[in-house]
Amino acid sequence: MNNSFKWSNIAGIIVGSAILSFGMNYFNIANGLAEGGIAGVSLLLKYVTGWSPAWTSLLMNIPLLFIGWKMLGKTSLIYTITGMLSVSLFLWLFAEFALPLEDSLLASLYAGGVVGLGFGIVFRFEGMTEGTDIIAKLMQKHYGWSIARTIFMLDFIILLFSLLFLDLNRTMYTLVALLVGARVIDFMLEGSNGAKAAFIITNRPQETASAIMNEMSRGITYLEGKGGYSGKQREVIYCIVSRKETIRLKKLVTREDPLAFVTFSDVKEVIGNGFPNG
User: Fold this and answer.
1) Strands across the sheet with 233-242, in order?
2) Residue 125 · residue 162 · CB < 8 Å
3) H-state helical runs in the chain
4) Which of 13, 14, 215, 219 would you call most buried, defined as having the most Cβ atoms within 10 angstroms of its Cβ?
5) How many CB atoms within 10 Å of residue 97?
């Protein structure tokens, strides 16, 4: 993670916090759905006691922030405080926004999509909105777990706890919302930077590589290959292109060598020249 402070990240965290807070009021609370993390606990408290989640979420997050502040750098700490305060503020501002739906499945899909989008934007700009996010970031850093995976595990534990206060029907629809939200978060963090890795086997490697570099401005790497049938040594071209460039690459390779063999594989995230940094 880039430790340099950026005002653009602050802006992104605030926007993401506004979206997720709006989604929680507009869909989750309006349809009696729970949520994961500290937000989920604050929603349960609202259903049971009537307390505002804007304040209960903030009060529960403060101790977790003190526990994790030593593990956060100065910049991450500022981003985290921004996220926590923004969520509480927007939960309060959007408290009157609500869209009760007769179709609970539709409500859970919208809730998961909107709240997941908000969380994804916050994470995209290196922010966090609650203490469970700190745990998710640490699991990603030390164990390589995806943020969405860790959050979903923590959310599932809280969801089981919610069975003490919610009926099974609303709990199951909340699970649907959490699954949708986890997928949206993954897409925001990885899918938006997704690309394709291409392996090109051709009898004209120099000409094909030159065309890729000159016409598509993409770098290539030569890999040493050996034909299993012919036993001949040949150069295999390896390059990474964005998803929308795959068709152009196919046409370019076919133009240079109609008999070329090309395979593509998914790349979740690319950091480097020619691609946006994650």
Assistant:
1) 221-226, 233-242, 195-201, 261-267
2) no
3) 7-23, 37-49, 53-68, 74-93, 104-124, 131-143, 147-162, 168-189, 205-216, 246-256
4) 13
5) 15
Which two tokens mark 66? 């003190």
Type of residue at 227 = G
SS3 224: strand
User: Amino acid letter at 105?
Assistant: L
CB 235, CB 223: distance < 8 Å: yes
CB 21 within 8 A of CB 138: no
> Maximum distance among all alpha carbons in the chain?
76
pLDDT (tens digit per residue) in 195-234 = 789 999 998 999 999 999 998 888 899 998 877 777 788 8
pLDDT digits (tens, 9 = 90+) for 72-91: 678 888 888 999 999 999 99
User: Residue 225 corresponds to which amino acid?
Assistant: G
Give just the sign of the alpha carbon dihedral 176, 177, 180, 181: negative
Provide the 8-state DSSP code for 275.
B
Q: What is the mean pLDDT of residues 109-133?
A: 88
Give first-to-last CA distance, the chain, whole Å.
9
Fill in the amino acid letter for 270.
V
